[in-house]
Fold these 2 entries.
Entry 1:
Amino acid sequence: MRKKIVFCVFLILVFVSASWPQGLRKAQLAGPWYPKDPEALSRLIDHFLKNVPASTLPSGNIMAIIAPHAGYVFSGQVAAYAYKSIQNKNYESVVILAPSHQFGFEGCSIYPNGGYETPFGIAQVDAFLAADISKATGFGYIAQAHQAEHSVEIQVPFVQRVLPQAKIVPIVMGIPKKAMIIRLAKGLKKATVGKKILIIASTDLSHFYTKEEANKKDNETIALIQEFKTDELIRKCEKGENILCGGGPVGATLLIGKDKAGVEILRYSDSSEASQDESRVVGYLAAALIAKPSTKEFHLSEQDKKELLQLAYSTVNLYIQKNKVPEYKPKSENLSQNCGAFVTLKKHGQLRGCIGFIEPVLPLHQAVMQASIYAACRDSRFLPVTRDELDDLEVEISVLSPLKKIINPNRITVGRHGLVIAKDGKRGLLLPQVAVEQNWTRETFLERACLKAGLPKNAWRSGAEIFVFEAIVFH
């Protein structure tokens, strides 16, 4: 009987110990890098998240984010832009890709089981996913890579706060070499297929240039990221260029998302915002990789365009003459898709009204009908259109692509891109064709968009957000 009791106790101990976290990695940064008290940490992260404007949040399925890994006083607010975009999403696990600062090695170290401890408690490692990734990549676990490394730990409290249900898989990447980065990316693709996984690329940008130098260099790096120029990015990192410390994590993340996602820049800043020291700054980036829709690229046939132009004409005529809106059912499915759209009215070649919808808030045919009425009657720059003018009106329609935030103004192509400039609750839009019609340079285009928003003409140089879009324009 006694042997049976001992045996049962042994089984219970085995079961309980198996459920306890194995390989617990103690917090190293709590106190110096972020608050040690859990309530203070909660308040700080929530404060950062609350400061993220809802207008900056991307839509769509986010596959990965890029977030900085400095102390929270320096980079916490920038990181919050990335984490706010995935808050309370339904991810099963989070794979944190982080560079090694303290221990030099080749390859990758995958944390196999147990957990990472923070003031919030233990973030449990997804041991099954870690094993799958290890098998798919051939990389194992190197304890020294995780012991003093801050680039993983600094992400974990944010993960715990915005995705409390998610497990983690910390992966520390060694010396950034192209073969290793490709190998990890291929293995991650294989191990995560069909699973609800978020990837976090942990990185800061350039280190210890002057603010002017850092901003210029960081803008160039951000352009490489947005354009998925992974080979060039990795090549620079292999050469040891001072562009970002997480070249391995960012490179692998871009390889995973290439041809499947687009990059949306959520926030860029540098350490001078906290330190006020512009002589030696570190750059910080928050970005999201958003999966491209599986549907075909949106287009309008010539019949679609003809139908929309007729709809705009008939809407203006009926509203001006009888104060009514036509009953209309689109013939094409394209015209029922939600799209941003502007209607421009001209009389003898001169602008008579232009109003529309920047965001895709209405089906295209409804957006055109509403914009037609507003352009004719509610453009504050002009008196409402009269009956006598109806025969002289010319209609131009611009169907807008989704807005895309950019950091580097040099990415603007006059004639291809329209502009939205936003700051302090003010926003101004200029359609792509306006810059061509006025023969503006890129800089003039930016200045005029600022003035359209009611901002100083150089606001685009001093904190205003810049968004670009493309448009299908026809008349």
Entry 2:
Amino acid sequence: MAFEGLSEKLNAAFKRLRGKGRVTEADVREAMKEVRLALLDADVSYSVVKDFTAKVTERAVGADVLASLTPAQQIIKIVNEELTVLMGGANSKLNFASKGPTVVMLVGLQGAGKTTNGAKLAGMFKKMSGKRPLLVACDVYRPAAITQLQVVGQQLDIPVFEMGQANPVKIAKQAVSYAKDHGFDMVFLDTAGRLHIDEQLMDELKNIKRTVEPNEILLVVDAMTGQDAVNAATAFDQALGIDGVMLTKLDGDARGGAALSIRAATGKPIKFAGTGEKLDMIELFHPDRMASRILGMGDMLSLIEKAEQSYDEKKAAELEQKLRKNRFTLTDYLEQMKQLRNMGDLNQLAGMMPGQMGKQMANAQIDEKLLRRQEAIILSMTPKERENPALLNASRKKRVAAGCGLDVSDVNRLLKQYELMMQLTKQLSKGKLPFGMKGMPNLGKMGGMGKMHGFGRKKRLK
């Protein structure tokens, strides 16, 4: 989980502050020393750390803070605010064209994830904003780059424009013309990367920029490369003039220093974050929400937004009525498990939950094989059995098990999990949002889902 190490160290420093009834200037400076070490260990650049701790210290040693009834909370509030400012203050939007298709030029070093994350971005705008995007294969050097773009384009149902090994500048120009003629309102240029920044790479990118005049030049950088990501951002900005940054592999970076350093180093905002391998694992980068995650306060807004995107309101309303009438069926059970899976990796959701709630879910995983087996069991039942599991006597269970190629013990395990799930959904359905998202504290009970649904179990079904 991103920032995991940093978050733990910062919270340890603040825990010592909270344990003091009164906080002195010496206490603040000692805490800032620990914050400084935590940030440096997270691979945040020295100059950024120095400026950040100086600003926090200056504000925190003020008379109003030290004399307040909750000085530790005031200091944490200051750290939260300064972290938000450090990462850009607020989410920065993509630059859209006032007329014609919006052209987004994706640039970066080889291996940063331009191809996959560019497609993710196009998919996000298609799903969230109803845009009609076109992917363009301008990387004619890397083996199978065009094929890779076509594969992810097909998975997202987004067309790909390619001209084989032609000149990338010509490809970009023809693609924009094609988009205008065929009604595409967004064009994503997947340009070539290099293993290092070189003059030839920059000249080609400058020619593409000069020819198509993109509305947005988005630099894609790998968060796991730490300070190398900051150096790449600085070099690309100086040579090309970028408009924003997309951080990839943020889910795998336990340090996360790149996210805290790029804005300060380049002055350019982080606009998007790739949070996993799946094609829907991309999100807007909100500095204030990320600061809350780093400080262990969770990110409830992003969690609720993710739930709203994943859940069907009509189905949720129907489920609520069924729960009120105590008519939660096995078909409903299967549907809810699929909806939960659509929300993404539970480990990522854990990072959005505050305090102990997040820790309870931190190592949970959805077992895809188990879900497929449960689906096979349920589909082997008759409609009446799905509606009323109480009908499943020994002979019926034996028939269902034979129908899906599993054992009776697997059927019994599913029925037990269904009963537990029914109890959980009754508790979570008290809010208006699906699964009780409005009454989010109830989600703390989800920490036991590893045992209930086979998430992360050591012993798997055969």
